[in-house]
Amino acid sequence: MAKAGESSFNDEIMESDIELEGEVVEPDNDLPQKMGDPSIDVSEEKRDQAQLYKKKGVDALSEGKQLFFAHIQYKRMECKLNEAIEHLTEAILLNPTSAILYATRAGVFIKMKKPNAATRDADAALQINPDSAKGYKSRGMAKAMLGKWEDAAHDLHVAAKLDFDEEISAELKKVEPNVHKIEEHKKKYERLRKERDMKKADTERKRKHAEEVSAASAVLKDGDVITIHSSNEFEAKLKAASACLGL
Asked: For a tag on the chain, would you pick the N or C end, based on fewer CB atoms within 10 A?
């Protein structure tokens, strides 16, 4: 059972909530998208075919973006984004060794607010090319959508170092204030935890001391002969005697 002192410290820790900014979406739980095998050999013919499908996908994405910025015809925009996914998936199956194809599809999933799907594609892109700025950017934006602010900031900073653009900058301006708040919260929690632990240690020390004094006082009677078995026992009984005498 928690003591009153412990309860007050635990309550203070529990009540230190953080007010964070930014939109967080529900995780998408769709079946994983089709992924190719990056270890296979890809012929030049298939690479060329993949590029054609990529162009179709990028064109569909561009049309979808225009509808998005115009704030009109949501269904048409959704259809265009799904069309972009279909074309880019065909491109990936033809050339699964291309990091840019996975990263591009990840960007479409970001527009569709499907962060888990975007993360899978970004991870695939980074496995193929660890220096894929677009892979880090997409994964960072996906993490931000899920409210994983620190992970998002890390990926976005890496993306900015590799290939800075205004979209990364805008995303970091949303993410970094939350990261700062989380860091301050952690510092506060750590300070409260240390204060709580120190209070508990002090209480325990005082309790043990009181028990030692009480035990020694019980055997200290006027005229009694006492046996000392150790220096610690001598110190405890000496303190008890001093306490009894008011010294």
From this structure: N
Helices (H), ranges, the chain: 4-14, 44-70, 74-94, 99-111, 115-128, 133-145, 149-163, 166-219, 231-245
Contacts (Cβ under 8 Å, ≥6 apart) of 196: 6, 9, 10, 13
**pTM of structure:** 0.71
Instruction: From 131, 130, 153, 127, select the one nearest 140 (Cα to Cα).
Output: 153
CA distances from 118 to 30, 82, 107, 115, 186 (A): 12, 14, 7, 5, 29
Q: Kindly report the number of other CB atoms within 10 A of residue 91's CB atom.
A: 29
For residue 114, the one-letter residue type is: K
Per-residue pLDDT of the chain (247 residues; tens, 9 = 90+): 334 344 444 444 444 567 788 789 999 999 999 999 989 999 999 999 999 999 999 999 998 877 766 555 677 888 999 999 999 999 999 999 999 999 999 999 999 999 999 999 999 999 999 999 999 999 999 999 999 999 999 999 999 999 999 999 999 999 999 999 988 888 887 777 888 888 888 788 888 877 776 766 665 555 555 565 666 666 666 666 665 555 5
CB 86 within 8 A of CB 58: no
| Backbone CA torsion sign across 213, 215, 221, 226 | negative
Q: Distance between CA atoms of 146 and 141, rounded to whole angstroms?
A: 9
> Cα(98)–Cα(127) distance, rounded to whole angstroms?
10
